Amino acid sequence: MGISIVLKIVLSGYLVYLMLGIVGISGVKKMIPVLGYEFNAMLTTRAAWNVYPNIALLIALNFYLIERLLNNLSIFNLLFFILAMLVMYSEVGLYFTLVYGTVLLIYLVFRLVHLKKIKVKILFGSALVLIFSSSFFILGKFDEIFASTRFNDNYSNFLLMLPKWYEGIQLSYLEDAFRRTIGQTIGGIHTDFIGTSNLIGGPALYCGIIVLLLVPVAFYNLDRKNKILFGLLYMLSIAYICIPIINIVFNGFSFSEMMYKMSSFWISIVFLLNISIFLYNVEKNRIKKR
Q1: Is-contact 222 277, C-beta < 8 A?
Q2: Rounded CA separation 133/137 (Å)
């Protein structure tokens, strides 16, 4: 098991390394997001559970394949991407495939607009066609989810929480996320829990101290449109950490309490994407002077 985890860490980092090379980031600068991804919480503190490092590896693969598709729209690259998404579906199920599929879709839209390879209207039209064509498969699977006892029980509890949703908001959850992100060892040893009472269920957003220190600088150097996008994503991440009803929705009603398991990885991805944009601007000498 230990060897397989090491291989997943190395392979995940290598895929991110290849992706950043295609984007146009070179030299030592590439190693900051690479090491941040390799040693994020999904591949370290949660690696004892097979599904967590597997999803981190598959997401790295899909990011790399998106860049391959953008640079060479070939049948082989397209089929490889579809196969990778099917493997992710078999690994984590429909709901989290949709969650991280949405993350990948946002990245794809961002890259297409940035590369100016397609007009926004055409892009959204194509997305609607894709959603409509896949809805026949997805709706059938949702019927199975809605019929499950676990979903129905947690959804019922969720409806009871809605009238007084504000009562569950606690900034201590945000403090807990910060402390666990920078204050626990690579083995996840940290016992002073404020929110959730266990390691696997608690927030673990670690992806490198350098990455976390660079996030404010990277955000400052974004242009206006990207600041709006990442500002909204950071606001959503704070709401996800602090507001129980939003957290429960993000988990697909799998729980009736605050839980950060697989649903929290997207926040680390946002950090790393923000840093990567900053490093790309450094590469092109586009950083703000003051």
Answers
A1: yes
A2: 8
Higher pLDDT, 91 or 185: 91
Match 């949660």 to its residue by tokens: 46
Q: CA 228, 32, 221 angle in degrees (round to 5)? A: 30
CA distance 167 to 165: 6
Number of C-beta neighbours around residue 222 at 10 A: 18
Is the pLDDT score of 275 beyond 70?
yes
Torsion of the alpha carbons at 12, 62, 44 and 251, rounded to the nearest 10 = 180
SS3 content of the chain, % helix, strand, coil (to 5): 75, 0, 25
Can you say how many angstroms the Cα of residue 186 is from the centroid of all Cα atoms in its chain?
A: 20
pLDDT higher at 30 or 177 = 30
Residue 75 CA, distance from chain mean position: 27
* pLDDT top residue among 144 and 187: 144
Q: What's CA 246's distance to the chain center, in Å?
A: 16
Per-residue DSSP letters for 63-95? HHHHHHHHH---HHHHHHHHHHHHHHHHHHHHH
The pTM (predicted TM-score) of the whole model is 0.81
**b/e 113-142 (16+ beta carbons within 10 angstroms → b):** eeeeeeeeeeeeeeeeeeeeeeeeeeeeee
Among the residue ranges 27-31, 220-224, 252-256, the one predicted with the least confidence is 252-256
Quick one: which of 269, 271, 260, 275 has its CA closest to 45?
260
